[in-house]
């Protein structure tokens, strides 16, 4: 069906997308992409990265735009693929009938899935657990995933354990934990922890063999989904990032991406907010057995 809204109708590329001939996807750029980005902004789906440089929609269909398309599709009950084709264009045309603001806001996001998290602390992190949790909730809520904290515990250690775990030594590896990592991941109660739940351990220092310290590590024993976070971690997204590693599983590559504000960005690039996930990452996350349908 031909697009009617004055903000879309005169653009040939958008009219083509409305027939999926061809749809618009990551890698595209131009006025047509800017029109889509502006539509998301007007609907209340922020485009912080895409507007950062120019102060307005940049027309570059990158990670953030793709993520917003996916998010919009999920909210509207459309096929979630991050590609703007017939159904997505028709929905935008319907919700934005004029060049001005939408006549009604998007309905509130209804969560479709959840992850179960347990928190075990042997030290207080620089960025408090509660802050890291809030940030994680916001990031995952974009994709209609709720974070349920089922249990939380300040773990009391014996003086001997405390001495050993003051610095948790061991390289960060998948499905393989060092003796001290194992000791950490056996500290505290396992009561109420289901096999498909994720336990978050807040430690003091995580140190690899080469002497480097880590903000966090998603290494855990094969059947015990868990992550470790160092008290010194300064990045507010550390918990969200490490949990995402677990959801993506060890076989997902690239492990880190050099893209600003992607939740799985490589450390020095993680500057932008809010963090988003790519569609490739989302597809894997939604295939995880650690994600529970609501
Ligand atoms: Zn990482």
Give a verbal description of the structure.
The protein has 294 residues and is α/β, with parallel strands linked by helices. It is built from nine helices and nine strands. Strands 1, 2, 4, 7, 8 and 9 form a six-stranded mixed sheet that branches. Zinc ion binds at residues 241, 245, 256.
Distinct compounds present: zinc ion
Number of DSSP-assigned strands: 9
- Might you state the CATH topology name of the largest domain? Collagenase (Catalytic Domain)
Instruction: Give the mean pLDDT.
Output: 93
Residue ranges: pLDDT <50 for 5 or more in a row? Answer: none
Shape verdict: elongated
CATH superfamily grouping of the largest domain: Collagenase (Catalytic Domain)
Overall structural class, as computed from helix and strand content, comes to alpha/beta
What is the structure about, briefly put?
The protein is of the alpha/beta class and 294 residues long. It is 30% helix and 14% strand. The chain folds into 2 domains: 12-95, Orthogonal Bundle (Muramoyl-pentapeptide Carboxypeptidase, domain 1), CATH 1.10.101; 113-293, Collagenase (Catalytic Domain), CATH 3.40.390.
